[in-house]
Amino acid sequence: MESEQLFHRGHYRNSYNSITSASSDEELLDGAGVIMDFQTSEDDNLLDGDTAVGTHYTMTNGGSINSSTHLLDLLDEPIPGVGTYDDFHTIDWVREKCKDRERHRRINSKKKESAWEMTKSLYDAWSGWLVVTLTGLASGALAGLIDIAADWMTDLKEGICLSALWYNHEQCCWGSNETTFEERDKCPQWKTWAELIIGQAEGPGSYIMNYIMYIFWALSFAFLAVSLVKVFAPYACGSGIPEIKTILSGFIIRGYLGKWTLMIKTITLVLAVASGLSLGKEGPLVHVACCCGNIFSYLFPKYSTNEAKKREVLSAASAAGVSVAFGAPIGGVLFSLEEVSYYFPLKTLWRSFFAALVAAFVLRSINPFGNSRLVLFYVEYHTPWYLFELFPFILLGVFGGLWGAFFIRANIAWCRRRKSTKFGKYPVLEVIVVAAITAVIAFPNPYTRLNTSELIKELFTDCGPLESSSLCDYRNDMNASKIVDDIPDRPAGLGVYSAIWQLCLALIFKIIMTVFTFGIKVPSGLFIPSMAIGAIAGRIVGIAVEQLAYFHHDWFIFKEWCEVGADCITPGLYAMVGAAACLGGVTRMTVSLVVIVFELTGGLEYIVPLMAAVMTSKWVGDAFGREGIYEAHIRLNGYPFLDAKEEFTHTTLAADVMRPRRNDPPLAVLTQDNMTVDDIENMINETSYNGFPVIMSKESQRLVGFALRRDLTIAIESARKKQEGIVGSSRVCFAQHTPSLPAESPRPLKLRSILDMSPFTVTDHTPMEIVVDIFRKLGLRQCLVTHNGIVLGIITKKNMLEHLEQLKQRVEPLAPPWHYNKKRYPPSYGPDGKPRPRFNNVQLNPIEEREETEEEVHLLNSTTL
């Protein structure tokens, strides 16, 4: 989901309009002709913020002038609003953890005072388990509702059950006594649209009418879905996993996990799946579960008032979402740990496991598929795999890696083009066009006309005596000398060859349409389409290996295992391995993906083939780029996300990244006891910084602490409303002891309580490799840069992301690619004739060296306070 293409700009409250309208120290990263737009309003842009023109914090004088020298000590009374965050801001993990520890100590100190305090202590201790229980219950119930509604609306495109309108096709024929085994999907109670409209069940007229009605319902569902998203909840579109990863890393997107988003995403997810678009519901179910977790967390003060604790609930909710999506509770926990969570302590692991358990139990109780399973395509294989099959399994892994690399590049290129052209301004038209093309091409092919989950089920299923699919149309060989299984390997019949041809066309169709479908303005998941592509390729490979083993069973690779009349090859197993390989190539998941697919099949026996295919797909995909599809979309949208998987191998220093730069205005700072309320208000109104270092004095320049812009604004407004005598000329004191003031001076304002007394600092010679690790592991918003205790500058999370992107654009390969002309390629020598510097076997454009100046030591000499 591209953030700047949301339908209502009202969702970007206080967001940055464009990096091109930012202050002078915000630079476009155009080192290699590519611009990265951090348009997502990186909140911790303490020195590089971009506040909309004309937006000021208005502070009114409240109360009369009073010459009393009593201080308003804000330590005695908490200020409402201090410590909270605005929209599109990053939380301070360290401060949130400190707040939680202080709350915990306060509760423990009071629990022995009375029975009521002990009850409150127990309630606080069990609130975590209560919120994940409610989240699991809601996630399972909503998943069951979505599954039932999607199945019914998917079958509605083909016909309707006259005996009970709320039955889908399968349920309609359950109670019929006129259904035959060969045509068990046909019964008098189920009527196609051609039978209802023109009264014909067969013939060209019936086919054309069913074709028209199929397209009509597909377009209707798609139009209704995109309209609901556009009008009521723009955040309900897309998969949601890139944004959830960003939110779990500490970023705040108000409304993304709200009630409206939950309701509209649930409804439109059903419509989008029923429309037949090449998408799935599994990814959006993670978003739905996280919405439930966010809503229930507001019922408990422990989580509603602490953003870091709330993200523990969201981690557990994402595990519950995958649990109900795939019927894989353990896989859901591992998915949350491996793929989406930024901070995952041990207690979150336990609660995630419990939430996944509750969600799976509720879904099993609802039994939406009528097969006593959690998913539609649950299968069991009874034939073991053999050693020689590792080679085709690895080939499927190579295909999955190549598919993942191709899809990521093609989809990102299309999404980038959508953002830069007029086509992106008409999301409803785009959805209608994609849905129309999908419906027109999908209907003639029975494998593309099927619901994607049903297609995967058919591809996974092994051929047994009760299967009537064309994939199981084998010729019975009566010359087999030895029968060791009920259904041995047999030569393929005409139905199998016809099915292979249709599957090849379906594979091409799915590959192309998935590229253009993922990212449109309806709920769209990627798990099921990727698994379908891999399952199609795997089934084709499985049938090919099966026929090869049958006709050449005397080859040395088959001779030991595949006797005549033996059932040694299972094509459905190849489909399962291919599905895992393609999904791994797109998402770059490993452990969690193997466990999810293992829980789908219910057999430990096939873990080794799955591991081989998934690791091969990851290695092949990483050869073309280490980013998965979700990381690529995070980077495309410019979300402030520091990926822990990336390695920082450059040799830059903190002084190369900090602000202000050499030609920038001096650093805006506060002094601890010689500034007035008017001075601070003027600095807030004249700058767009989100925080200010506090120093001892102009002469000392020693660091005292750090004050956030929002906290300063709220504290001053609260003091004027609640305390008499606070005026514009009142002295603001951040020190512990107030300096002596003349008797006629107005009442001073003490703001030490909002001051961060222990901000993280590094020296100007600290390697950026260490600074990046500090930001990743501690979740910092900003870090001050000092020299001998004197503040020189500041590094924010946005500065970090800009620097990393700048280094990526400046890195040039040592040798030009084969398709480049040498004259177009940058020379190995700089404009001064000297060789360009080389670090870690890559060639870098030299970063401008900085020299210490008096301006960095005496920062306030040229500043008017």
UniProtKB/TrEMBL annotation:
One of its GO terms (cellular component) is early endosome membrane. It comes from Suricata suricatta (Meerkat). Keywords: Antiport, ATP-binding, CBS domain, Cell membrane, Chloride, Endosome, Glycoprotein, Ion transport, Lysosome, Membrane, Nucleotide-binding, Repeat, Transmembrane, Transmembrane helix, Transport. Belongs to the chloride channel (TC 2.A.49) family. ClC-3/CLCN3 subfamily. Pfam families: CBS, Voltage_CLC. The chain crosses the membrane at residues 126-150, 214-236, 256-277, 284-301, 313-337, 386-408, 428-447, 499-520, 532-553, 573-598. This is Chloride channel protein. It is found in: Cell membrane; Early endosome membrane; Late endosome membrane; Lysosome membrane. Its main location: membrane.
